[in-house]
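seq as requested:
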Amino acid sequence: MKVTEIVLRHMKMRMKAPFTTSFGTFQDKEFLLLEAKDENGLSGWGESVAFHSPWYNEETLKTNWHMLEDFIIPDLLNKEMSHPDEVSEALSYIRKNNMAKSAFEGAVWDLYAKQKSIPLAKALGGTVNEIDVGISIGIQDTVADLLKLIGLHVNEGYKRIKVKIKPGWDVEVMREVRKHFPDIQLMADANSAYRLEDINLLKQLDEFDLMMIEQPLASDDIIDHATLQKELQTPVCLDESIHSYEDARKAIELGSCKIINIKIGRVGGLTESKKIHDLCKERDIPVWCGGMLESGIGRAHNIALTTLSNFVMPGDTAASSRYWEKDLIEPEVTVENGIIRVPEKPGLGYEPDLETIKQFTVMEKSYS
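struct tokens:
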């Protein structure tokens, strides 16, 4: 397999509604699409999930463009490869910059699956034909607004509800949610908004029978999370703290969490995601696939990954219509009663809509 041309696109799409977490609010989602072409005219597609600002981690859209243009593309363009796993090996000399690496590697995985005429899920070793999905709800203006949204999504059949929390929008909010929805699978996502000194406040969340609390403490921490987990009945799920197999191994050894959220971009691609998945399966740590407000391209990668056997909890891969008036793929991702049916076509299983992609392209550059 050889990638003979790369097309890099800066995209800008308006979300249906603003999305608010503990680290900020935005409505326009800017991101990169990477198209990798081979000598036979096949194209594989990848998406960078880096935001335009360094809210989630140190990467941004602009730093990803720089890493891709000045390092990753020159290194791998026209290089003979037998398997996508070789991408992460070839890029191991580059420290961090996982979202940039993942964008390129994801396109290579899609291309590889198309060359083999198999679905990406099968290429990854997936074992199921449908996946359970939940939904992530940002911080709302009022509790009433939040309850209304939760009711809407429960009626749509989503299998799990994730509610964003932050100091001042936490215990009382979750109490109201649980009061109105006593039986739903419910979790809280703190996006690193708390400190270990908040342990007594966080312990109050135990009364709400949550599936988990996601990343309550610092984004680079596994030590304090181990202390916190010993004090909580609620399982701690790590997100931002896990960037690699080694991070996952150390967190499990320390007892820092009972669940891990795998985000493809955060850990550097599908190859590393599979390694973390396999480790967690060996250690009886359940995993689920987190979302980064992806377009349909990134969403399709998430669906394929979630077919691996230890993804036993509903992920964040909601329907395209949850976020976009018009997505970048045909058909769009749809959810029926909390289930996404895994496409059976080769590669991602969804066709990029080139006209829509063109409509939302801010800048485009080709490399050959």
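Residues 98-115 form the longest helix (18 residues).
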